[in-house]
From TrEMBL:
<feature type="domain" description="Glycosyltransferase 2-like">
    <location>
        <begin position="7"/>
        <end position="130"/>
    </location>
</feature>
<dbReference type="InterPro" id="IPR001173">
    <property type="entry name" value="Glyco_trans_2-like"/>
</dbReference>
<keyword id="KW-0808">Transferase</keyword>
<dbReference type="InterPro" id="IPR029044">
    <property type="entry name" value="Nucleotide-diphossugar_trans"/>
</dbReference>
<dbReference type="Pfam" id="PF00535">
    <property type="entry name" value="Glycos_transf_2"/>
</dbReference>
<protein>
    <submittedName>
        <fullName>Glycosyltransferase</fullName>
    </submittedName>
</protein>
<dbReference type="GO" id="GO:0016740">
    <property type="term" value="F:transferase activity"/>
</dbReference>
Length: 321
């Protein structure tokens, strides 16, 4: 099969940003197919306008009359892709000029997915820079800041799995996702966490590119999923429970996953309304009580005492709540 790259874009009421993204895709000389899933936009997207913005690239427009959320839209987009590889992307983010050279680097390589560095609009004062936490993981893995590395070792893969759980910092082999039944969850937010961890768990060959392939745009306020602070955030425990049953206690990603969960719970506490803190603490304690038994906890205490301490703190806070 000839190598080709599809851009899969879930979108809802993003009429202003989406045409710009399609123009960028056409300019990369890497993307050969675009699948846009209109997740209940009002008014609906118009295929003619999208084709005009894509400047000759084939565009498939799918529509959900009732919104399924970004996860459901990505899943439907996966079904429609004909290209050998795909890149999930959000309509309000930006493709980097490096995505073309990155795709060229991958030509002829055998891989399940390639994770690449990304920039964040909150860091633009430093240029197109990756957030500090992800950059630290990259450096600790001994990976190049520019070149293509891999296949990476199991240890490096486990470290990279703790990077931002975004859907748009990886180029996937389409058949890898389909054959392994890897999909986004369809919870309101955090629906890309399942895609991320199941991919790292199932992959046999992971590559890592130091090129910055995307710019994540964060705008304060408004109705974007990034800015949600309410009860929808707590639905993430549905996804975490499913992943815990898959990864804990014996998979290589078990401890990296729990470290990520600890980070996520701290992030949630800072970003949801204070009225929800007692529920968050109770759900957190229930998660660890359900998935970390005495034998597993003893192993965690031996291998990562800081993680073991944090688990005890979550259990205690849940009792207090």
């Amino acid at each position: 099969m000839t190598e080709s790259l599809a851009l899969v874009v879930p979108t809802r009421n993003d009429h202003a940003d989406l045409p710009r993204l399609l123009r960028e895709a056409a300019g990369t000389k890497a993307v050969s197919e675009i699948v846009v899933v209109d997740d209940g936009s009002d008014p609906p997207l118009k295929e003619r306008a999208l084709r005009r913005a894509a400047r000759g690239l084939p565009v498939t427009l799918l529509r959900e009359e009732v919104s399924r959320g970004a996860g459901g839209a990505r899943n439907r987009g996966l079904e429609a892709v004909s290209a050998s590889h795909l890149l999930y992307f959000d309509g309000d983010d930006r493709l980097s000029p490096e995505i073309g050279p990155l795709w060229a680097d991958l030509a002829g390589r055998d891989y399940d997915f390639c994770i690449f560095r990304h920039a964040d609009s909150r860091m633009l004062w430093r240029g197109w820079a990756q957030p500090h936490a992800d950059e630290a993981l990259w450096a600790a893995s001994g990976l190049s800041a520019t070149a293509l590395s891999g296949p990476v070792s199991e240890a490096v893969s486990a470290r990279l799995a703790q990077a931002a759980n975004y859907p748009w910092n990886k180029i996937y082999r389409t058949a890898f996702l389909r054959e392994n039944g890897i999909r986004c969850s369809e919870i309101p937010v955090h629906n890309d966490i399942a895609l991320h961890w199941e991919s790292f768990d199932a992959a046999r060959t992971v590559l890592a590119s130091g090129r910055i392939g995307a710019l994540h745009i964060v705008r304060p306020g408004g109705g974007r999923l990034t800015n949600q602070t309410g009860e929808a955030r707590l639905a993430v425990f549905e996804s975490l429970d499913v992943l815990a049953r898959r990864l804990l206690p014996d998979r290589p990603l078990a401890l990296p996953f729990l470290r990520f969960v600890g980070y996520l719970l701290g992030w949630l506490r800072e970003n949801i309304v204070p009225e929800l803190h007692p529920r968050l603490e109770a759900l957190s304690a229930r998660f660890f009580a359900r998935h970390v038994g005495p034998d597993f906890y003893a192993r965690i205490a031996m291998e990562d005492p800081v993680l073991a301490r944090d688990i005890l703190i979550h259990l205690a806070m849940g009792d207090a709540a």
